[in-house]
């Protein structure tokens, strides 16, 4: 069972919810931080990381002596990552999506397989919770392949898998939630929260994946997020209050369910409802 925790908008408390669910699980559970631009689940779960490996994309390197400048590779590449100057191809590897097409069409076998480092994949253990995270290399813009790698590795684990997705509604989100059995969208009672929740719901509906909502800091704001969910028949599974104690705990790296142990049963119940 794979449960993704996502939010259209950043800063809604997605990691707070993902970590709380991992801590509330009473069977085998694995937490995977797919927010590779800024993974922060480790701050709360404090795992021991004992495996680390580099993750790279395969990109073309032109072999000058063999390239005739025929342009077949340029014609094929929809990302403009390879072009021809004069009688020789030139690859712009930072634009390459590693589709592999240019290797296939080159009639001269003039492309070698080079590597572009995207980031690191790390894993370990946080008590009874399996833990993994991806960290995008500084300066790298292409997060989705690394996110997909974190998700795919986590999907091999036994038991419950919690996927902490990146914010937003574009490729990184889709890379994290594709194939999830259920997605919990964390939102808040603000106009921005509602707007971005609506965008995220649009994505989930396009993907035809089941989802529900958790409203964080539910007693701050205008109440329109909950009202919209009711109008749209979207289940609101939990409402977390705004409290100084919770905010102080977050700032100190203390999980929500340790600051407010009385909320733990609500997360346990939610897991029982969602897991078969
Ligand atoms: S691997 Fe694909 S994206 Fe990269 S340069 Fe070749 S055709 Fe373009
Ligand atoms: S397809 Fe091969 S031979 Fe033709 S321009 Fe590209 S790299 Fe050079």
Task: Produce a short descriptive summary.
With 276 residues, this protein is of the alpha/beta class. It has 11 helices and 11 strands.
Strand order of the largest sheet: 3-6-7-2-8-1-9-10-11
- What is the number of beta strands? 11
Counted up, domains total 2
* Beta-strand fraction estimate: 25-35%
What is the level 1 CATH name of the largest domain? Alpha Beta
Largest sheet: 9 strands, mixed
Question: How would you name the CATH homologous superfamily of the largest domain?
Answer: P-loop containing nucleotide triphosphate hydrolases
Helices and strands, in order, run as: EHEHEHEEHEEHEHEHEHEHHH
Number of helices: 11
The fold-level CATH name of the largest domain is: Rossmann fold
CA-atom Rg in angstroms: 22 Å
Low-confidence stretches: none
Would you write up a description of this structure?
The chain has helices at 14-24, 41-45, 72-76, 101-105, 144-155, 171-177, 191-207, 224-231, 244-251, 256-259, 264-274, and strands at 2-6, 29-33, 48-62, 82-85, 88-91, 111-126, 129-136, 160-164, 182-188, 211-216, 236-239. It is elongated, with a radius of gyration of 22 Å. With 276 residues, the protein is of the alpha/beta class. The strands form 2 sheets. A 9-stranded mixed beta sheet has the order 3-6-7-2-8-1-9-10-11, with helices on both faces. 34% of the residues lie in helices and 29% in strands. The longest helix is centred in the last third of the chain and has 17 residues, at 191-207. It folds into 2 domains: 2-55 and 120-274, Rossmann fold (3-Layer(aba) Sandwich); 64-109, Alpha-Beta Plaits (2-Layer Sandwich). The structure holds iron/sulfur cluster (2 copies). One iron/sulfur cluster is lined by residues 62, 67-73, 84, 89, 105-106, 108, 110-111.
